[in-house]
Amino acid sequence: MDISLNGHEARALGVLIEKAFTTPDQYPLSLNAATNGCNQKSNRDPEVDFSEAEVRIALQGLRMKGLAGQSVPAGSRVERWRHNASETLGLGEREVAVLAELLLRGPQTAGELRSRARRMRDLPDLAALDQALQGLRERGYAETAAGGRAPRTTQLLCGETDPDAGAAPAPAAEAAAPASTSGPTSGPTSGPPPTAGAPHEDPLARRVEALEREVRDLTRSMSQLREELGA
């Protein structure tokens, strides 16, 4: 299944899965609870500071992709959100718990994943973890780096889980411009001009592309939300 999430959606999905396991008495989550879960300081990397509006858009995006649903309990005016990761992605509880850890904390070793995901679902040994990881890898939701003393596993639903990754500093060549000049010059500048496709431009281009993709997703989700609210 080809599902692509932006950084906001990835964090929100991880939170919904986590809270379903760890605080079932408070689940499904209100918008406020989901926002607090996204912004909490423990068990998160990177730390973020999302507004409720941002989280609402992310939840709407997940709903459009079949990964979340909303409801208003009887006698309440507060809408609540739940995840549909197990059904939509075809995953078992251990697999979903491991996926949530990857969404919330980024690439991790097997030891890190097992110790952290055990708070959600029992993983008695590394063999149980490897079975869960194998299920994620077979479905294309994760990959484990080959070789090395401590291979790390990365989730593949979201290419960049840091929502601020697109805000990159200017390349060093541009930041090194002189502070002042005495007038126009006709002579050559010191040092060769930047070459198109220079290595330092590749990471920036990737971050810009990821940011543009996230903006498109957020714009589409916002349009859907406006339609539902009749705005």
Description of the molecule:
By secondary structure, this protein is mainly alpha-helical. It has one domain: Winged helix-like DNA-binding domain superfamily/Winged helix DNA-binding domain (Arc Repressor Mutant, subunit A), CATH 1.10.10.10. 48% of the residues lie in helices and 8% in strands. It contains nine helices and six strands. It has helices spanning 7-22, 31-39, 52-64, 85-89, 93-105, 110-117, 126-138, 172-175, 201-229, and strands spanning 29-30, 68-71, 80-83, 108-109, 142-144, 152-155. A three-stranded antiparallel beta sheet has the order 1-3-2. Strands 4-6-5 form a three-stranded antiparallel beta sheet. β2 and β3 form a beta hairpin. The longest helix is centred in the C-terminal third of the chain and has 29 residues, at 201-229. Mean pLDDT is 83; it is low at 166-190 and 194-201.
Keywords:
single chain, Arc Repressor Mutant, subunit A, three-stranded antiparallel beta sheet, mainly alpha, 231 residues, 6 strands
Helices and strands in order:
Layout lengths: L6 H16 L6 E2 H9 L12 H13 L3 E4 L8 E4 L1 H5 L3 H13 L2 E2 H8 L8 H13 L3 E3 L7 E4 L16 H4 L25 H29 L2
Antiparallel strand pairs: 1-3, 2-3, 4-6, 5-6
Helix pairs in contact: 1-2, 1-3, 1-5, 3-9, 5-6, 5-7
